[in-house]
Amino acid sequence: MNFNSGTERPHQPVRIYDLHLGRCGEHEDITAAAARASLIPCRCIEAYSSDHVWNEFWDEKWWQWEPVNFSIRDNFVYSKGWGKKFGTILARQSTGGAEQVTDDYVESTASLSVYAVENNGKPLDGAVIMLAARKTLDETSLFIDSYGVTDNEGKYSFTVSAGREYYGRVDSPLGSNPTTSGQVVPILMNPEESGEYEYTLKIGGVISDSKFKILPNRDPTIDYMADVRYKTQKQVLNWRLLFNDLGGEYTYDNSLGAEIYSFICDETNFKQAGQNMKYDVSSLDLSSAGEYSFNIPADKNWYFLLNNSNSYSNLVHASGTYRLFASTTMGIEQNSGSQMVLSQNYPNPFNKTTEIGLNIEEPGFYRLSIFNSQGELIRNLAEGQFNTEKYSFIWDGTDSTGNLMPSGAYFYRLESRDRFDNKIMILIR
Protein backbone atom coordinates (compact mmCIF):
# COMPACT_ATOMS: atom_id res chain seq x y z
CA MET A 1 0.00 0.00 0.00
CA ASN A 2 1.14 3.50 -0.81
CA PHE A 3 1.09 5.71 2.30
CA ASN A 4 -1.20 8.39 0.95
CA SER A 5 -4.88 9.16 0.55
CA GLY A 6 -7.03 10.37 -2.26
CA THR A 7 -10.52 11.85 -2.15
CA GLU A 8 -11.87 9.09 0.07
CA ARG A 9 -10.83 7.40 3.32
CA PRO A 10 -12.40 3.95 3.02
CA HIS A 11 -12.99 1.58 5.94
CA GLN A 12 -14.10 -1.49 4.01
CA PRO A 13 -11.18 -3.92 3.52
CA VAL A 14 -12.18 -4.79 -0.07
CA ARG A 15 -12.10 -1.11 -1.03
CA ILE A 16 -8.75 -0.53 0.68
CA TYR A 17 -7.37 -3.57 -1.14
CA ASP A 18 -8.72 -2.29 -4.46
CA LEU A 19 -7.09 1.14 -4.01
CA HIS A 20 -3.77 -0.07 -2.54
CA LEU A 21 -3.74 3.36 -0.90
CA GLY A 22 -4.10 4.57 2.66
CA ARG A 23 -2.69 6.18 5.74
CA CYS A 24 -2.58 4.72 9.26
CA GLY A 25 -6.37 4.38 9.44
CA GLU A 26 -6.60 2.20 6.34
CA HIS A 27 -3.60 0.16 7.48
CA GLU A 28 -5.32 -0.37 10.84
CA ASP A 29 -8.59 -1.50 9.22
CA ILE A 30 -7.15 -3.91 6.68
CA THR A 31 -4.73 -5.37 9.26
CA ALA A 32 -7.62 -6.10 11.62
CA ALA A 33 -9.60 -7.67 8.78
CA ALA A 34 -6.68 -9.86 7.68
CA ALA A 35 -5.97 -11.00 11.24
CA ARG A 36 -9.57 -11.84 12.02
CA ALA A 37 -9.94 -13.69 8.71
CA SER A 38 -7.01 -15.82 9.94
CA LEU A 39 -8.79 -16.32 13.31
CA ILE A 40 -6.23 -14.14 15.12
CA PRO A 41 -7.95 -11.86 17.67
CA CYS A 42 -7.10 -8.30 16.74
CA ARG A 43 -8.29 -4.89 17.93
CA CYS A 44 -7.74 -1.29 16.89
CA ILE A 45 -5.82 1.24 18.99
CA GLU A 46 -6.75 4.92 18.76
CA ALA A 47 -4.65 7.94 19.76
CA TYR A 48 -6.83 10.67 18.28
CA SER A 49 -5.11 13.81 19.58
CA SER A 50 -1.75 12.40 18.40
CA ASP A 51 -3.16 11.61 14.92
CA HIS A 52 -2.18 7.96 14.82
CA VAL A 53 -3.84 4.56 15.07
CA TRP A 54 -2.46 1.03 15.05
CA ASN A 55 -3.35 -2.54 16.12
CA GLU A 56 -2.94 -5.12 18.83
CA PHE A 57 -3.13 -8.90 18.45
CA TRP A 58 -3.82 -11.49 21.14
CA ASP A 59 -1.24 -14.09 22.15
CA GLU A 60 -1.94 -14.86 25.84
CA LYS A 61 -2.13 -11.04 26.21
CA TRP A 62 -2.59 -8.05 23.92
CA TRP A 63 0.57 -7.15 21.97
CA GLN A 64 1.39 -3.98 20.03
CA TRP A 65 1.33 -4.35 16.22
CA GLU A 66 2.36 -1.39 14.04
CA PRO A 67 1.37 -2.04 10.38
CA VAL A 68 2.73 1.21 8.83
CA ASN A 69 6.36 1.45 9.96
CA PHE A 70 6.43 -2.17 10.98
CA SER A 71 7.16 -2.99 14.60
CA ILE A 72 5.74 -5.59 16.93
CA ARG A 73 5.63 -6.09 20.73
CA ASP A 74 7.31 -2.69 21.19
CA ASN A 75 4.85 -0.49 23.07
CA PHE A 76 7.19 2.46 23.60
CA VAL A 77 8.32 2.78 19.98
CA TYR A 78 5.92 5.71 19.58
CA SER A 79 6.90 7.82 22.59
CA LYS A 80 10.63 6.99 22.58
CA GLY A 81 11.31 6.14 18.93
CA TRP A 82 8.90 8.41 17.10
CA GLY A 83 8.75 11.16 19.71
CA LYS A 84 4.94 11.00 19.91
CA LYS A 85 3.18 12.96 22.67
CA PHE A 86 -0.04 11.28 23.73
CA GLY A 87 -3.10 12.40 25.62
CA THR A 88 -5.12 9.24 26.11
CA ILE A 89 -5.10 5.99 24.13
CA LEU A 90 -8.15 3.80 23.52
CA ALA A 91 -8.48 0.16 22.48
CA ARG A 92 -11.57 -0.25 20.34
CA GLN A 93 -13.36 -3.45 21.36
CA SER A 94 -15.17 -5.69 18.90
CA THR A 95 -18.46 -4.80 20.64
CA GLY A 96 -17.96 -1.15 19.68
CA GLY A 97 -17.04 0.09 23.14
CA ALA A 98 -13.57 1.25 24.15
CA GLU A 99 -11.02 0.46 26.86
CA GLN A 100 -8.42 2.82 28.31
CA VAL A 101 -4.90 1.53 27.52
CA THR A 102 -2.82 4.70 27.92
CA ASP A 103 -0.61 3.21 30.62
CA ASP A 104 0.41 0.42 28.20
CA TYR A 105 2.10 2.98 25.91
CA VAL A 106 3.00 5.92 28.16
CA GLU A 107 5.39 5.80 31.13
CA SER A 108 3.97 8.75 33.08
CA THR A 109 0.19 8.66 33.51
CA ALA A 110 -2.51 9.92 35.87
CA SER A 111 -6.14 9.01 36.60
CA LEU A 112 -9.00 11.37 35.76
CA SER A 113 -12.56 10.49 36.79
CA VAL A 114 -15.24 12.68 35.25
CA TYR A 115 -18.73 12.66 36.78
CA ALA A 116 -21.91 13.69 34.99
CA VAL A 117 -24.80 14.91 37.16
CA GLU A 118 -28.19 16.43 36.42
CA ASN A 119 -29.26 19.79 37.84
CA ASN A 120 -30.29 18.35 41.23
CA GLY A 121 -26.98 16.53 41.63
CA LYS A 122 -28.21 13.02 40.78
CA PRO A 123 -25.74 10.82 38.84
CA LEU A 124 -26.45 10.78 35.10
CA ASP A 125 -25.68 7.40 33.53
CA GLY A 126 -25.27 6.86 29.80
CA ALA A 127 -23.91 10.37 29.23
CA VAL A 128 -21.06 10.92 26.75
CA ILE A 129 -17.94 12.55 28.22
CA MET A 130 -15.83 14.09 25.46
CA LEU A 131 -12.18 14.90 26.21
CA ALA A 132 -9.89 17.25 24.27
CA ALA A 133 -6.13 17.69 24.81
CA ARG A 134 -3.46 20.31 24.28
CA LYS A 135 0.34 19.78 24.03
CA THR A 136 0.16 16.66 21.88
CA LEU A 137 0.76 17.44 18.18
CA ASP A 138 1.90 20.96 19.10
CA GLU A 139 1.99 23.21 22.17
CA THR A 140 -1.01 25.42 21.38
CA SER A 141 -3.68 23.60 19.37
CA LEU A 142 -6.59 21.77 21.00
CA PHE A 143 -7.49 18.36 19.55
CA ILE A 144 -10.26 15.84 20.22
CA ASP A 145 -8.59 13.24 22.37
CA SER A 146 -10.96 10.62 23.79
CA TYR A 147 -14.45 9.89 25.02
CA GLY A 148 -16.35 7.55 27.30
CA VAL A 149 -19.88 6.76 28.48
CA THR A 150 -20.79 7.14 32.15
CA ASP A 151 -21.75 4.17 34.29
CA ASN A 152 -24.66 3.97 36.76
CA GLU A 153 -22.76 6.25 39.15
CA GLY A 154 -22.46 8.90 36.44
CA LYS A 155 -18.72 8.22 36.20
CA TYR A 156 -16.18 7.56 33.48
CA SER A 157 -12.48 7.22 34.27
CA PHE A 158 -9.72 8.19 31.84
CA THR A 159 -6.07 7.22 32.05
CA VAL A 160 -4.29 10.36 30.85
CA SER A 161 -0.69 11.21 30.06
CA ALA A 162 0.97 13.44 32.65
CA GLY A 163 1.91 17.00 31.74
CA ARG A 164 -0.87 17.72 29.21
CA GLU A 165 -3.91 20.03 29.34
CA TYR A 166 -7.38 18.47 29.22
CA TYR A 167 -10.74 20.00 28.39
CA GLY A 168 -14.14 18.35 28.24
CA ARG A 169 -17.88 18.42 27.77
CA VAL A 170 -20.86 16.18 28.55
CA ASP A 171 -23.74 15.36 26.20
CA SER A 172 -26.94 13.50 27.03
CA PRO A 173 -30.62 13.56 26.03
CA LEU A 174 -31.21 15.71 29.15
CA GLY A 175 -28.79 18.41 28.05
CA SER A 176 -25.14 19.34 27.57
CA ASN A 177 -22.37 21.26 29.32
CA PRO A 178 -21.29 23.53 27.74
CA THR A 179 -24.66 24.06 26.11
CA THR A 180 -23.14 25.23 22.81
CA SER A 181 -22.13 22.37 20.51
CA GLY A 182 -18.40 21.92 20.01
CA GLN A 183 -17.35 23.94 23.07
CA VAL A 184 -15.34 22.53 25.99
CA VAL A 185 -14.38 23.66 29.49
CA PRO A 186 -11.01 23.27 31.25
CA ILE A 187 -10.94 20.08 33.34
CA LEU A 188 -7.32 19.26 34.23
CA MET A 189 -4.11 21.19 33.67
CA ASN A 190 -0.72 19.42 33.67
CA PRO A 191 -1.51 16.43 35.89
CA GLU A 192 1.36 14.90 37.83
CA GLU A 193 2.51 11.31 37.40
CA SER A 194 0.34 8.84 39.38
CA GLY A 195 -2.01 11.65 40.39
CA GLU A 196 -5.71 10.94 40.92
CA TYR A 197 -8.10 13.69 39.83
CA GLU A 198 -11.86 14.22 39.67
CA TYR A 199 -14.10 16.68 37.87
CA THR A 200 -17.90 17.06 37.79
CA LEU A 201 -19.93 18.31 34.83
CA LYS A 202 -23.51 19.36 35.58
CA ILE A 203 -26.26 19.73 33.02
CA GLY A 204 -29.44 21.81 33.25
CA GLY A 205 -31.94 18.97 32.85
CA VAL A 206 -33.54 17.05 35.71
CA ILE A 207 -34.23 13.34 36.08
CA SER A 208 -37.87 12.90 37.08
CA ASP A 209 -38.45 11.52 40.56
CA SER A 210 -39.56 7.92 40.97
CA LYS A 211 -43.32 7.57 40.90
CA PHE A 212 -43.61 5.07 43.73
CA LYS A 213 -44.49 5.67 47.38
CA ILE A 214 -43.44 3.25 50.12
CA LEU A 215 -46.23 1.87 52.28
CA PRO A 216 -45.90 0.46 55.79
CA ASN A 217 -45.57 -3.30 56.10
CA ARG A 218 -48.69 -5.20 55.15
CA ASP A 219 -50.88 -7.32 57.39
CA PRO A 220 -48.75 -10.40 58.18
CA THR A 221 -51.69 -12.83 58.00
CA ILE A 222 -50.29 -15.92 56.31
CA ASP A 223 -52.07 -17.75 53.53
CA TYR A 224 -49.08 -18.21 51.25
CA MET A 225 -45.41 -17.44 51.50
CA ALA A 226 -43.23 -16.25 48.61
CA ASP A 227 -39.47 -16.79 48.73
CA VAL A 228 -37.53 -14.49 46.40
CA ARG A 229 -33.84 -14.43 45.55
CA TYR A 230 -32.28 -12.17 42.95
CA LYS A 231 -28.94 -10.70 41.98
CA THR A 232 -27.69 -8.22 39.42
CA GLN A 233 -24.97 -9.62 37.20
CA LYS A 234 -23.72 -6.46 35.51
CA GLN A 235 -24.68 -3.02 34.28
CA VAL A 236 -24.88 -2.53 30.53
CA LEU A 237 -23.54 0.82 29.35
CA ASN A 238 -25.56 2.37 26.54
CA TRP A 239 -22.40 3.12 24.59
CA ARG A 240 -22.53 5.81 21.90
CA LEU A 241 -20.50 4.95 18.80
CA LEU A 242 -18.47 7.98 17.71
CA PHE A 243 -15.62 8.53 15.24
CA ASN A 244 -16.78 5.86 12.79
CA ASP A 245 -19.14 5.29 9.87
CA LEU A 246 -22.18 4.42 11.96
CA GLY A 247 -23.34 7.97 12.54
CA GLY A 248 -23.71 8.03 16.33
CA GLU A 249 -25.54 4.73 16.78
CA TYR A 250 -25.51 2.84 20.07
CA THR A 251 -24.11 -0.48 21.16
CA TYR A 252 -23.92 -2.15 24.57
CA ASP A 253 -20.84 -2.51 26.74
CA ASN A 254 -20.87 -4.59 29.93
CA SER A 255 -19.45 -3.48 33.24
CA LEU A 256 -19.42 -5.17 36.64
CA GLY A 257 -21.51 -3.89 39.50
CA ALA A 258 -25.12 -2.75 39.47
CA GLU A 259 -28.06 -2.11 41.76
CA ILE A 260 -31.76 -2.52 41.12
CA TYR A 261 -34.97 -1.75 42.98
CA SER A 262 -37.04 -4.68 44.23
CA PHE A 263 -40.51 -4.28 45.69
CA ILE A 264 -43.94 -5.80 46.14
CA CYS A 265 -47.27 -4.32 45.11
CA ASP A 266 -50.85 -5.41 44.62
CA GLU A 267 -52.60 -5.69 41.26
CA THR A 268 -54.01 -2.16 41.25
CA ASN A 269 -50.60 -0.58 41.78
CA PHE A 270 -48.97 -3.01 39.36
CA LYS A 271 -51.27 -1.74 36.59
CA GLN A 272 -50.63 1.88 37.56
CA ALA A 273 -46.87 1.28 37.35
CA GLY A 274 -47.32 -0.18 33.86
CA GLN A 275 -49.23 2.96 32.82
CA ASN A 276 -46.45 5.22 34.18
CA MET A 277 -48.77 6.51 36.92
CA LYS A 278 -47.98 6.98 40.60
CA TYR A 279 -48.14 3.71 42.51
CA ASP A 280 -47.66 2.34 46.04
CA VAL A 281 -45.17 -0.40 46.94
CA SER A 282 -44.15 -2.44 49.99
CA SER A 283 -40.73 -3.69 51.12
CA LEU A 284 -38.74 -1.42 48.80
CA ASP A 285 -35.02 -2.21 48.50
CA LEU A 286 -32.19 -0.92 46.29
CA SER A 287 -29.33 -3.40 46.20
CA SER A 288 -27.19 -5.66 44.03
CA ALA A 289 -28.75 -8.82 45.49
CA GLY A 290 -31.59 -9.83 47.78
CA GLU A 291 -32.88 -12.89 49.57
CA TYR A 292 -36.09 -12.56 51.54
CA SER A 293 -39.58 -13.86 52.04
CA PHE A 294 -42.95 -12.22 52.47
CA ASN A 295 -46.39 -13.39 53.47
CA ILE A 296 -49.25 -13.08 51.00
CA PRO A 297 -52.92 -12.92 52.03
CA ALA A 298 -55.19 -14.86 49.72
CA ASP A 299 -57.65 -12.03 49.10
CA LYS A 300 -55.97 -10.62 45.95
CA ASN A 301 -53.03 -10.91 43.56
CA TRP A 302 -49.58 -9.63 44.53
CA TYR A 303 -46.59 -8.86 42.31
CA PHE A 304 -42.87 -8.88 42.95
CA LEU A 305 -40.99 -6.50 40.65
CA LEU A 306 -37.42 -5.64 39.71
CA ASN A 307 -37.24 -2.03 38.55
CA ASN A 308 -34.30 -0.17 36.98
CA SER A 309 -35.67 3.33 37.49
CA ASN A 310 -32.55 4.38 39.40
CA SER A 311 -30.79 4.36 36.00
CA TYR A 312 -31.57 6.96 33.35
CA SER A 313 -30.08 5.29 30.26
CA ASN A 314 -28.07 2.16 31.12
CA LEU A 315 -29.54 -1.32 31.47
CA VAL A 316 -29.00 -3.96 34.16
CA HIS A 317 -28.69 -7.72 33.74
CA ALA A 318 -30.46 -9.47 36.60
CA SER A 319 -31.46 -13.02 37.45
CA GLY A 320 -33.73 -14.41 40.12
CA THR A 321 -35.77 -17.27 41.48
CA TYR A 322 -39.32 -16.99 42.78
CA ARG A 323 -40.96 -19.74 44.83
CA LEU A 324 -44.44 -19.92 46.32
CA PHE A 325 -45.33 -22.09 49.31
CA ALA A 326 -48.81 -22.99 50.50
CA SER A 327 -50.09 -25.06 53.44
CA THR A 328 -53.58 -25.73 54.71
CA THR A 329 -52.30 -25.36 58.27
CA MET A 330 -50.78 -21.91 57.81
CA GLY A 331 -52.56 -19.26 59.84
CA ILE A 332 -54.95 -21.83 61.36
CA GLU A 333 -54.71 -22.64 65.06
CA GLN A 334 -54.71 -26.27 66.07
CA ASN A 335 -58.02 -27.68 67.32
CA SER A 336 -58.20 -27.97 71.08
CA GLY A 337 -58.61 -31.72 70.70
CA SER A 338 -55.28 -32.13 68.90
CA GLN A 339 -52.75 -34.44 70.48
CA MET A 340 -49.86 -32.07 69.60
CA VAL A 341 -49.27 -28.35 69.01
CA LEU A 342 -46.33 -27.14 66.94
CA SER A 343 -45.46 -23.48 67.63
CA GLN A 344 -44.00 -21.00 65.17
CA ASN A 345 -40.25 -20.81 65.64
CA TYR A 346 -38.71 -17.70 67.22
CA PRO A 347 -37.02 -15.62 66.04
CA ASN A 348 -38.22 -15.86 62.46
CA PRO A 349 -36.47 -14.98 60.22
CA PHE A 350 -33.28 -15.92 62.09
CA ASN A 351 -29.56 -15.78 61.50
CA LYS A 352 -27.73 -18.17 63.86
CA THR A 353 -30.24 -20.09 65.97
CA THR A 354 -33.99 -20.35 66.39
CA GLU A 355 -36.22 -22.04 68.97
CA ILE A 356 -39.05 -24.44 68.09
CA GLY A 357 -41.69 -25.13 70.73
CA LEU A 358 -43.88 -28.25 71.09
CA ASN A 359 -46.88 -28.94 73.31
CA ILE A 360 -47.47 -32.70 73.59
CA GLU A 361 -50.96 -33.50 74.92
CA GLU A 362 -50.83 -37.27 74.48
CA PRO A 363 -47.71 -39.35 75.25
CA GLY A 364 -46.32 -41.40 72.40
CA PHE A 365 -43.77 -41.52 69.58
CA TYR A 366 -42.95 -38.20 67.88
CA ARG A 367 -40.37 -36.96 65.38
CA LEU A 368 -39.31 -33.32 64.74
CA SER A 369 -37.53 -32.91 61.36
CA ILE A 370 -36.11 -30.12 59.16
CA PHE A 371 -36.60 -30.11 55.36
CA ASN A 372 -35.37 -27.75 52.65
CA SER A 373 -37.70 -26.07 50.17
CA GLN A 374 -37.39 -29.06 47.78
CA GLY A 375 -38.69 -31.40 50.49
CA GLU A 376 -35.32 -33.03 51.15
CA LEU A 377 -34.61 -34.09 54.74
CA ILE A 378 -31.94 -31.91 56.32
CA ARG A 379 -31.92 -33.08 59.90
CA ASN A 380 -33.96 -34.85 62.57
CA LEU A 381 -33.93 -32.57 65.61
CA ALA A 382 -35.72 -35.01 67.93
CA GLU A 383 -37.12 -38.50 67.70
CA GLY A 384 -38.51 -40.91 70.29
CA GLN A 385 -41.01 -41.26 73.13
CA PHE A 386 -42.45 -37.97 74.41
CA ASN A 387 -44.41 -37.39 77.63
CA THR A 388 -47.35 -35.02 78.09
CA GLU A 389 -45.57 -31.69 78.55
CA LYS A 390 -44.04 -28.73 76.69
CA TYR A 391 -40.70 -29.03 74.90
CA SER A 392 -38.39 -26.64 73.09
CA PHE A 393 -35.58 -27.41 70.64
CA ILE A 394 -32.86 -25.18 69.16
CA TRP A 395 -31.86 -25.42 65.51
CA ASP A 396 -28.51 -23.86 64.65
CA GLY A 397 -28.97 -23.88 60.87
CA THR A 398 -26.85 -26.98 60.23
CA ASP A 399 -27.60 -30.33 58.63
CA SER A 400 -27.10 -33.75 60.20
CA THR A 401 -23.34 -33.63 59.53
CA GLY A 402 -22.85 -30.13 60.95
CA ASN A 403 -22.64 -28.25 57.64
CA LEU A 404 -24.07 -24.72 57.62
CA MET A 405 -27.17 -24.45 55.46
CA PRO A 406 -27.59 -21.51 53.05
CA SER A 407 -30.14 -18.73 53.36
CA GLY A 408 -33.67 -19.64 52.38
CA ALA A 409 -36.97 -21.12 53.45
CA TYR A 410 -37.09 -24.37 55.43
CA PHE A 411 -39.96 -26.56 56.63
CA TYR A 412 -40.03 -28.10 60.06
CA ARG A 413 -42.38 -31.02 60.70
CA LEU A 414 -43.72 -32.65 63.84
CA GLU A 415 -45.24 -36.07 63.26
CA SER A 416 -46.68 -38.84 65.36
CA ARG A 417 -47.77 -42.29 64.21
CA ASP A 418 -51.02 -40.91 62.75
CA ARG A 419 -50.71 -37.08 62.57
CA PHE A 420 -48.31 -34.41 61.39
CA ASP A 421 -47.99 -30.63 61.28
CA ASN A 422 -45.72 -28.37 59.19
CA LYS A 423 -44.51 -24.79 59.51
CA ILE A 424 -42.06 -22.62 57.60
CA MET A 425 -39.04 -20.72 58.90
CA ILE A 426 -36.59 -18.40 57.15
CA LEU A 427 -32.83 -18.60 57.55
CA ILE A 428 -30.85 -15.47 56.62
CA ARG A 429 -27.06 -15.61 56.52
**Widest β-sheet, arrangement of strands:** 4-3-2-1-5-6
- How many strands in all? 29
Q: Could you give a short account of the major beta sheet?
A: 6 strands, antiparallel
Low-pLDDT parts are 328-337
**How much helix is in the residues?**
under 10%
The percent range for strand residues is over 45%
State the distance separating the first and last CA atoms: 65 Å
The rough form would be described as elongated
- How many DSSP helices? 4
How many domains? The number is: 4
Q: Whole-number radius of gyration?
A: 31 Å
Structural class: mainly beta
Average pLDDT number: 88
Characterise the protein shown here.
There is one protein chain. This protein is mainly beta and 429 residues long. It has helices spanning 13-19, 24-37, 77-82, 267-274; strands at 42-47, 52-58, 62-66, 71-72, 90-92, 98-100, 109-117, 128-134, 142-149, 155-161, 165-172, 175-177, 185-189, 196-202, 212-214, 224-240, 250-255, 260-266, 279-287, 289-296, 302-307, 315-326, 340-342, 354-360, 364-372, 377-386, 390-395, 408-415, 420-427. The chain has a six-stranded antiparallel beta sheet, with helices on one face.
Provide the fold topology.
Layout: H1 13-19, H2 24-37, E1 42-47, E2 52-58, E3 62-66, E4 71-72, H3 77-82, E5 90-92, E6 98-100, E7 109-117, E8 128-134, E9 142-149, E10 155-161, E11 165-172, E12 175-177, E13 185-189, E14 196-202, E15 212-214, E16 224-240, E17 250-255, E18 260-266, H4 267-274, E19 279-287, E20 289-296, E21 302-307, E22 315-326, E23 340-342, E24 354-360, E25 364-372, E26 377-386, E27 390-395, E28 408-415, E29 420-427
Helix pairs in contact: 1-2
